[in-house]
Amino acid sequence: MLALLAGGLLGCDDYARDAAPATATASGPPEPSSAPASPPLFFAGLTPGRYVGVQFRLMIPAAVGEIQQRFAEAGRKHAEWMTAYADQHANLPPGTPLPYHPNFGISAAEYDQLKQAYGNMKVHEVERFDLQVKQRGDKLTFAAHGQHSFLDELAISPTGQLHFGAIVVDKPKRAESVKGRFGTWSGYY
Q: Which residues, 6+ apart, have CB-to-CB distance to 88 below 8 Å?
């Protein structure tokens, strides 16, 4: 998910404790720039300048790590079944976990613990890095180095189109006072 939040760029995915991290926020005051006097509203205050990017990892408590490990192993062992089971429940509302099944490799009580843990993940900072926001023509673009250089392909047009290489998301959607895992937010996503 990419969201523009009150002057920052946030990208996050749900990760277990051993999964690869998601690169995320750019925050902090930008250096003065020659940005247009009235940037498009969905830029949410993000203006050209230098920011501190933060790479973070969403983690579940270590106490449920062993349960997560057994669940993941069962998923690998029963991969075809798991896909078919998920397909059977494709009509569940977004964010609704699958109903418990013994093929999960854990007990129903452990599955409840795991669902609780994933519902209460914590953000842990991995590292900070230099991130530049630039104005190239009428688009905001991003620049970072090393493992974060994939952000160089990200651009936001004045019409709200989000570009990531060949991928284009046509229109931003406005969110007002959305209650989320990390607090209530408003902005464009």
A: none
- Residue that finishes a domain, picked among 119, 143, 163: 119
Assess contact for 45 and 83: CB atoms under 8 A: no
What is the number of residues in the chain? 189
Burial of 169 (0-12, 13-18, 19+ CB in 10 A): middle
pLDDT digits 0-9 by tens, 74-100 = 999 999 999 999 999 999 987 789 999
* Phi, psi for residue 23 in degrees, rounded to 5: -85, 140
Amino acid at site 37: A
Determine the structural domain holding residue 7 and report its residue range.
Answer: 2-59+122-188
Residues 126, 35 within the same domain = yes
What local confidence, expressed as pLDDT, does residue 29 receive?
41
* pLDDT, greater one: 106 or 123: 106
Tokens of 152: 């160089």
